[in-house]
Amino acid sequence: MPLPSDGVTASHRGGSGEPLVLLHGINGSWRIWRPVIAALEADHDVFAPTLPGHAGGPALGPEAPVSIDVLADGVEQILDAAGLETAHFAGNSLGGWLAIELARRGRGRSVVAFSPAGGWRADRDLRRVIRLLSGARAVLAHREALGLDDLIRRPGFRRLAFRQAMERGDLIPAVEALDLIADADGCSAYDGFVRWIRGTQPMASFRDGLPCRVRLAWSEHDRTIPFHRYGQPILDALAGAEHVTVRGVGHVPMYDDPQRVVKTILQVTNSENREEEQT
Asked: Could you tell me what percent of the chain has a pLDDT over 70?
């Protein structure tokens, strides 16, 4: 069962066991993980922070470039404040990219990256993603005029409205769908991130291997960054990473199939825990 709706907060923490950090994507907050948090807390001390520059998260300086390095620096400060030197990481989209970067910095015990962002070989592929995300934000700019808050209460409209991100937007409770819209509307990092990413070197974050186990868990029906175009380049570049396909889900899979998402994470974190116990 998803956690009940609550106000925008900086993070959620609960459960016990090995620490597991959940990192959300651009325009989101920790609340996108609500469908899976309770199940993960049965095995882990789960910490789900909101990224810097996102609704409820730490503010970014007005002149700071919103780069992967800056965001990762901010997450490291959040982890330090939470008393987490290292942890297992699960991230989605931008959160998956950050999880890989944090593992590169030595903070990761393992990484499960659900359709991580950051993999493109051609400028047209980057422009395509920016166009999709910017189009969605343009709709939010006319939220009141479109009557979006009333329309989103209809399951059929939720399925249509969230189609780019997930297969079954109708499964999102209406009150949580309104939360997700508010989170996107409150993201101050988006414009700066787009400016930075237009000038960055493609695939710069995915060179060589990482010092921990990394699973790239790509959504079968990812309409935002499909695997053949955006995932295969990462898999080719990131030595030692494993790849699994998460069946029946879209780019943001937590509402589409919470049980499958939980299983995909625990297959990695539990195996890592068992290996540590045996050594």
From this structure: 95
Predicted structure pTM score: 0.93
Position 181: which residue type? I
> Going by DSSP bridges, is the β-strand pair 11-15/44-49 parallel, antiparallel, or unpaired?
antiparallel
Query: What does the DSSP assignment read for 74-124?
Result: HHHHHHHHTT-SSEEEEEETHHHHHHHHHHHTT-EEEEEEES-S---SSHH
Does residue 251 carry a catalytic annotation? yes
User: Regarding predicted confidence, which is higher, 122 or 227?
Assistant: 227
Encode pLDDT of 98-134 as tens digits.
999 999 999 999 999 999 999 998 999 999 999 999 9
- Catalytic pick from 43, 110, 251, 256? 251
Contact 152, 174 (CB under 8 A): yes
For the chain, the 3-state helix, strand and coil shares in percent, each to the nearest 5, are 45, 15, 40
Which of the residues 170, 222, 256, 257 is marked catalytic? 222
3-class SS of residue 147? coil
Say how far apart CA 80 and CA 197 lie, in whole Å.
Answer: 27
